[in-house]
Structure formats: C-alpha cells, structure tokens
Design brief:
Layout lengths: L1 H25 L2 H29 L3 H10 L5 H10 L1
Length: about 90
C-alpha cells in the first residue's frame, strides 16, 4: 500500500507540476499523455490496494474514506501514509 501510494502521489505531482505546464506553456501535449497514462495506471492500483488492505486488515470506514480522498489531493497519499503509520 505504501509503495503504490507513493507512486500514485508522485505521478500526480508530476502531472500537475511538470506535464501540465509543459502542455500549456510550451505546447507539448505528449507530456500529459505519457504521465497521464502512468498516473491512471497507478491510480487504479492505488484503489485496488485500498480494497485489498480493507479486506485483509479490516480497515474502518473512516480510514478507507481518508485513503480514497487522499488520492485526489496533491501530497494527499504522502500525508495519508504518515497518518496511517501512527
């Protein structure tokens, strides 16, 4: 879960911080396509890992909801990982 979360969070930051500025400032839409595909794959893996961990470790509804919401916030998976480890 941690590794997938870190990968998903990193790809989201790359998408927002590098690929999108390249697309709109320098007219390079290929960057968004490449990073977007990777992010989509990692996002799907992140959601599957939430489901797997929920079934195996009996996560509470609040923890599952927090993990899900974290996927939509920049730096969210990193913050969730820190909160979850406590």
């Amino acid at each position: 879960m941690r590794y997938v979360g870190w990968g998903e969070g990193s790809s989201f930051l790359l998408l927002l911080g590098i690929a999108m500025p390249l697309k709109y400032a320098f007219d390079l839409p290929q960057a968004v396509f490449i990073v977007g595909v990777a992010h989509g794959f990692l996002f799907s893996l992140y959601l599957l890992s939430i489901a797997w961990v929920t079934l195996v470790h009996r996560w509470s509804f609040v923890r599952v909801l927090a993990a899900f919401i974290a996927a939509f916030i920049p730096f969210g998976p990193f913050l969730f990982d820190r909160w979850n480890r406590r």
